[in-house]
Amino acid sequence: MLRDITLGQYYQTESCIHSLDPRVKLGGTILFILSLFFFQNALGYVAAAIFLAVVIRLSHVPFRYMVRGMKSILFLLLLTVGFNLFLTPGTPLVTFWKITVTWEGIALALTMAVRLSMLIVGSSVMTLTTTPNNLTDGMERLLSPLRIFKVPVHEVAMMMSIALRFIPILLEETDKIMKAQIARGADFESGNLLKKAKALIPLLVPLFISAFRRANDLAMAMESRCYRGGKGRTKMKPLIYRRRDYVAYACIFAYLAVGIGLGRLVDFSVFFHL
User: End-to-end CA distance of the chain, in Å?
Assistant: First the structure.
């Protein structure tokens, strides 16, 4: 299960998506996620699915590798679908005991399931095709206007990059600790939910100790290399927009334009009733 989490991992291969400027991928991911919250019917999600499928195809990352990351959020997905399915008022479809399933609940549950799935897969495409260093540079450049408001942009970008980079490391460490404890007789599978939660306590203690140890080693390594923040720092490979980046921006805005043209991002009928 832990190895199924792909968020924060980088998939090494050659593709046009990998070669894009990280600012394009960050901005495109943000716009794609925002667009998912404005669609009003199935046509918008079909357009989003086609756009996402094309991007995955161009990235040369195996589709099964991205779908594998969905296993880690299966519980959250089922919980979200369940809440929307059973707690949404509307036209009753099925009633049993004190629970009523409505047509509106089914529609909302399906919408939330599709939206959450595309959100996770879309975010995974960005992290799988962007190295942590490029991701940090892209975040810093995109957030650079906030320096006017005294926001420590470089430090924020560095923290986010380190957090993403530590996800696969901590997952690997957790897997090693679990295997070591299972070899010593630990049982993480049997029993009810409460018993399984209690069984994880001996796992969390060495995991936290390992995380703090790695954080201390990283801090000492940065200090030994005279790291003093972003002020006055130069880039060995500065970010420069190229032709392919402008083409990618055009494709992203074309996707948004198609959504607006279908009436999924903006419901133009509202303006006719004003």
Answer: 52
What's the pLDDT score for residue 112?
Answer: 86
Residue type, 149: F
Mean pLDDT of 219-234: 78
Maximum distance among all Cα pairs of the chain, rounded to whole angstroms = 70
**pLDDT of residue 100 exceeding 50:** yes
**Quick one: which H or E segment has residue 99?**
strand 99-102
Between CA 211 and CA 217 the distance in angstroms is 10
User: What is the chain's mean pLDDT, rounded?
Assistant: 81
Read out DSSP for 188-232?
A: SSSS-HHHHHHHTHHHHHHHHHHHHHHHHHHHHHHHHTT---STT
pLDDT of residue 188: 72
Burial 13-48 (b: 16+ CB within 10 A, else e): eeeebbebbbbbbbbbbeebeebbeebeeeebbebb
Give pTM, 2 decimals. Answer: 0.76
Q: How many CA atoms are closer than 13 Å to the CA of 186, on its beta-carbon side?
A: 17
CA atoms of 71 and 2, how far apart (whole Å)? 9
Asked if 67 and 122 count as a contact pair (C-beta separation under 8 A), the reply is: no
Place of tokens 């549950």: 109
Q: How large is the angle between the packed helices 74-86 and 103-128, nearest 10 degrees?
A: 160
pLDDT digits (tens, 9 = 90+) for 140-176: 888 888 888 888 888 888 888 788 778 778 878 888 8
d(CA 124, CA 119): 9
**132-142 and 153-183 helices, crossing angle to 10°:** 150
